[in-house]
Amino acid sequence: MRIFPAVLIAFSLSSPFAMAQVPANTPSAAAAPIAAAGKWRASKVIGVNVYNQANEKVGDISELIIDSSGRVEGAVVSVGGFLGMGEHLVAVPMNQLKFSNEAGKTTTGTTSSNTKEWYPDRAVLNTTKDQLKAMPQFKY
Known about the structure:
- Residues 1-20 form the signal peptide.
- With 140 residues, the chain is an alpha+beta fold.
- Helices cover 20% and strands 29% of the residues.
- The chain has a seven-stranded mixed beta sheet.
- Mean pLDDT is 75; it is low at 26-34 and 106-114.
């Protein structure tokens, strides 16, 4: 019966010392990300506004579709609606979307400035809002 309290005290006294010897896994300043250079966080691409060639907003990206190898196949664009009511979801292949960080300029992968932005400012799709609404609806 006296052995149990002795073992409990021994473990409680030795555990802070053992934990203090473990190196911390904190990121260093050297591991901080550099300029995004065309590599964007998926969570930040979701919600990006989609415009057409005439600079009219036609929708926004609501989901990304990824294949089994991890490659992004397409984006689900939400067209129309208000607060989730009446929205029309359309799947668009990624090669049809062009990304940009400035209005009127498009790019296929690089950011237009040297800031550490991990997302594009906008996506441009060569279509109209009516054409998107006429496309078959994407169903989950």
